[in-house]
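EI: anyone free to look at a 65-residue chain?
SC: sure, send it
EI:
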Amino acid sequence: MPNSPSDKPRRITVQRRGPLLVEGPVEVELEDGTTVVSDRFLVALCTCRRSRRYPWCDTSHRDRG
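SC: here you go
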């Protein structure tokens, strides 16, 4: 069976003080069971939970107040 694009592993880039960068499109299941979807080619997922758009990163991690 030949490899299809869906068989290709999804690349996730980890940054020390930033979001997880995920090659999209992505579907994210939240703690409460709801699902959010992004069809962008690269998605930034918040890891600090400061984002007002969680789970999407809005660069709130840069504010150190």
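EI: The mean pLDDT is 88.
SC: 👍
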